[in-house]
Amino acid sequence: MVRYEGGCLCGELRYAAEAEPVNARVCHCRLCQKAVGAAFNARILFRRSDLALTGAVQTFHSSPEAQRGFCPSCGTTVFSLREGVGVIAVTAGSLDDPSQFKPSMHIWISSKQPWLQIDDGLPQFPEGAPVP
Asked: Where are the alpha helices (DSSP H) in the chain?
């Protein structure tokens, strides 16, 4: 089993998971863009019970069903949490080894920045991923 570890810029907020991710996606929605301050949010989704958080954390409800978690000291956005469905997504840039991030698709490309060209061959969806 692969171990995923990471945290914020100052090191105060840390996480670890030793479980298979639910998925790994690149989200181009406006909420993600604003939350991470970038053109997209590359994130790895885990079951909440599989990810341990340590250190101080501050959260913000970015929508009725989702909270964004960040370090109160350095401000790094580290995760988004959907308690209602029991999942948490960590930002790929916060991984100690970001090469562990292997996305399977791009979602919400209807909000993709016009200058961004996606040519990685992965599936692209105008909004959320289709439910199997």
From this structure: 30-36
Amino acid identity, residue 1?
Answer: M
pLDDT tens digits, residue range 32-71?
999 999 999 999 999 999 999 999 999 999 888 899 999 9
Q: Go through 23-53 and write b for each residue having 16 or more CB atoms within 10 A of its CB, e for each that does not.
A: bbbbbbbebbbebbeeebbbbbbbeeebbeb
Asked if residue 87 lies in contact with residue 103, where contact means CB atoms within 8 angstroms, the answer is no
* Alpha-carbon distance values, 109 to 26, 30, 39, 100, 105 (Å): 9, 10, 11, 23, 10
What's the pLDDT tens digit per position in 75-126?
A: 999 999 999 999 999 999 999 999 999 999 999 999 999 999 999 999 999 9
CATH architecture of 4-111: Beta Complex (2.170)
